[in-house]
Amino acid sequence: MMSKIESFDELKSLQERLKAGRDPKKPCVTICVGTGCLAYGTQKLVDNFREELAKRNLAEKIDFRTTGCHGFCERGPMVIISPEKIFYQRVGLADAGEIIDKTVLKGEVIDRLLYVDPATGVKVVHEDDVPFYKKQTRLVFGLNSKVDPESMEDYLAIGGYSALGKALTGMKPEAIIQEVIKANLRGRGGGGFPAGWKWDSTRKAKGEPKYIVCNADEGDPGAYMDRSLLEGNPHLVLEGMIIGAYAIGSSEGYIYVRNEYPLAVKNINTAIRQAREAGLLGANILGSGFSFDVKINRGGGAFVCGESSALFASLEGRAGEPRAKYIHATDKGLYDKPTNLNNVETWANVPFIIDRGADWYAGIGTENSKGTKIFSLVGKINNTGLVEVPMGTTLREIVFEIGGGIPDGLKFKAIQTGGPSGGCIPEKYLDLRVDFDELTKIGSMMGSGGMIVMDERNCMVDVARYFTNFLVSESCGKCVPCREGVRRMRDILVDIADGKGREGDVELLEKMSAAVIDGALCALGNSAPNPVLSTIRHFRDEYKAHIEEKRCPAGVCKALITYSVDAEKCTGCMVCSKVCPTGAASGERKKAHTIDPAKCTKCGACRESCKFDSIIVK
Amino acid sequence: MEEKVKEIIQQYRGDKSYLVPILQDVQREFNYLPKDALCAVSTHLSVPISRVYEVVTFYKAFSLKPKGRCQLSLCLGTACHVRGAELIAGNISDILGIKEGDTTADLEFSFETVGCLGACALGPILVVNGEYHGHMNIAKSTKILKKLGKKGASDDEQD
Q1: Disulfide-capable partner of A525 in A482, A601, B24, B37 (CB 3.0 to 4.6 Å)?
Q2: Closest Cβ opposite residue B78 in set A260, A303, A416
Q3: Which CATH number is A23-130 given?
Q4: Is B32 on the interface with A (CB under 8 A)?
């Protein structure tokens, strides 16, 4: 247990002591145990390492650290051996002993565990040379690989809480707000509203107490950067919140986190307990006279609770229904008191701005979007993972240079950003410089930073139907335009996908979208038509093919496709006939098979199992 | 049951604003939210039962029906969707003979689809009693169900 830190000087000397106690030349084995890697079974590898180290009596001589997500989820489990920073990927759960004996003790590199750059075929030894990392600017997220999320000492040893010390002892609250305004930090949760101005409004609002809230209700399907930050570096988020609370004049904060993120809940709880023990939360923080504490509240699993007023309702123990926002949350938010809500990534940026200054921060990014942004690059992409790049990086760089392009030699079709409130961006905009404003201009949005890559085998009508369907099930039901309008839009999209589309459906969808945008109560409803509008805007031909020709060009919409066998490619291996649940696929050994359309349920099992790509879907 | 509910409420010092987490803990205890437990929450937290019911039916995480011994969750996040998760959902539903969100009559299997598990590199993902099975496909999901003892999953019985 850490004893209470009474002042900034004491904090500084503690940091120095911890830093000095760490020999940078001492060997250290680091393993990523973020949720993504844990899903590979990495816990077993961790146990093996501990066991093997103990067996060799090396536990004292070699540091062993488990950390949060490094971002390269595609290649887990990942092990990094310092000080050389040798990077091993797809490590087998039984490889621990070999890595210790060969690499840690003898400095030998194990060839089979190295990453192979698919573009050049060259094996990469060091982490920093992996193309996926090389082209990123891992400012906020990079700290994840340096700290054990359960160790406050780790965070302090890399200079953690310095920004807080600087803010509390050397800066007036107004000066901090001005610094954040000058840095032009914009909300990373979706809206992109300038955080500094929000802080300023909350500070100036009448009413006590004032609340600050951290929105960790990351509900966008396909986005998980907030979870990875909270899981991997909870003290960074906490530090940002404490600085914000001091600037705003708040003594009470909340973190609203998804219950589906058990590891994030556990790690942030641990961090709060440690910060309290160290006197960084509670009364009279660092002897400054400022007091602040944080509570955690777990969400009930409702997408709408990411919306501020719905989130407050949920925090108060009610159903998460939004309200009209004639009065801003900064005046009347949680319990009708002035409330400042920012998302996890926004809070995590704050310590950097205070520590290094607004001018430095504003030097990164584009004119109106400063700093870096973490994106979750997922879907039909070779290097699935979390990437952090400066605002203004092009989609092409993100998808092809960092992401490594599309698997299986298929063609890029679109990239979807902004979650269910965003849109699909076609190939012709690949050179778009990604920031808040550019994405909005072409009918999508930044959102929380999900980027879902789609290839030629993804149908845009199906994607619009998917998102609309998601929004129908997540609509809170309070206002008619969202509850009924989005539902009817979904019905039309289902009809189109089922081959029952009628002439004029596209125009009707556009008209209904306009009504929903105008009439819905909250941002969720206002933005619900975006996936439909953006796919119509950029892929109108595909809608036409569905409606007029009753054809799904991508081969997805079941009612419009048939499965058949390419007799040229089929080798008669009989695999398809074995996996077909209805007996539709049949044929003799070594002779081309056939699929009986009358029996075929289009389940896709044959295509999935065919090793010769001989199943034709049209 | 009432004692257990009281105990959970005490952990939150009877604070009404923690209704959602309290209900989450109650559900974890009983595997679903039985009527008596909800009444106990209402009484001991001094929240009208109508409000409790409103909250329970609003949030996705809550279930008023008992869950099966074996719980299957298939991720239908966008990344999993574009990799064909819906075809897998169809396959599981067909084999179990239930729609997503339902439980088999013998209380052996519950099948639900979830928003996003945030392990997109492994997508599509099927979670079986908390254990992740990545890079799921139709054939693999059939095999898993077979292993779990679902008779319908064997090819012979399908015909």
Answers
A1: A482
A2: A416
A3: 3.40.30.10
A4: no
Å between A385 CA and nearest CA of chain B: 7
| Neighbour-count burial of A266, counting CB atoms closer than 10 A to its CB (0-12 exposed, 13-18 middle, 19+ buried) | middle
Nearest to A440 by CA among A223, A184, A191, A221: A191
**What's the number of CA atoms in the CB half-sphere (13 Å) around residue A584?**
21
Q: Give residue-wise pLDDT tens across range A508-558.
A: 999 999 999 999 999 899 999 999 999 999 999 999 999 999 999 999 999
Buried (b) or exposed (e) across A227-254, using 16+ Cβ within 10 A?
Answer: bbbbbbbbbbbbbbbbbbbbbbbbbbbb
Task: Tell me if A543 sits within 8 A of A536, measured CB to CB.
Answer: yes
Cβ–Cβ contact B58 with A under 8 A: yes
Q: Which of B81, B96, B125 has the highest number of chain A CBs within 10 A, making it the mutation to test binding with A?
A: B81
pLDDT at A302 over 90: no
Domain A562-617 CATH class label: alpha beta
CB-based contact A15:A162 (threshold 8 Å):
yes
pLDDT exceeds cutoff 50 at B157: no
Where are chain B's structural domains?
Answer: 2-58, 70-158
Provide the CB-side half-sphere exposure for A88 (13 A, CA).
26
Alpha-carbon gap, residue A563 to B75, rounded angstroms: 26
Q: At the fourth CATH level, which superfamily is domain A160-362?
A: NADH-ubiquinone oxidoreductase 51kDa subunit (3.40.50.11540)
Q: How confident is the model at residue B154 (pLDDT cuts 50, 70, 90)?
A: very low
CATH class, B70-158 region: alpha beta
Between CA B6 and CA A609 the distance in angstroms is 53
- Cβ-contact A424, A463 below 8 angstroms: yes
Considering CB atoms only, which of B16, B84, B142 is closest to A317? B16
Model confidence pLDDT, tens digit, residues A334-392: 999 999 999 999 999 999 999 999 999 999 999 999 999 999 999 999 999 999 999 99
Pick the residue from chain B with its C-alpha nearest to A313.
B17
Class of domain A372-458: alpha beta
Please report the pLDDT score of residue A98 as a whole number.
96
Interatomic CA distance for residues A337 and A12, integer angstroms = 36
Q: A336 with B96: CB under 8 angstroms?
A: no
| pLDDT for B149 beyond 90 | no
Distances (CA, A) of A8 to A56, A180, A280, A288: 41, 22, 11, 9
Distance from CA of A582 to the nearest CA of B (A): 7
The predicted pLDDT at position A325 comes to 82
- Amino acid, res. A290: F
Do residue A379 and residue B115 have CB atoms under 8 angstroms apart? Answer: no
From chain A, the residues in CB contact with B130 under 8 A are none
* B83 at interface of A, judged by CB pairs closer than 8 A: yes
Every domain of chain A and the residues it spans = 23-130, 160-362, 372-458, 461-548, 562-617
Show the tokens assigned to A475.
């609509």
Q: Are A243 and A167 in contact (CB under 8 A)?
A: yes
pLDDT at A615: 93
Express each pLDDT in A220-246 by its tens digit: 888 899 999 999 999 999 999 999 999
**What tens digit of pLDDT does each residue of A240-257 get?**
999 999 999 999 999 999
Mutation to test the A interface, candidates B18, B80, B116, most A Cβ within 10 Å: B116
The Cα A385–Cα A115 span in angstroms is 15
Domain range A461-548, CATH architecture: Up-down Bundle (1.20)
A72, A303, A305, A318: best to mutate for the B interface, most B CBs within 10 A: A318
Q: What is the pTM of this model?
A: 0.93
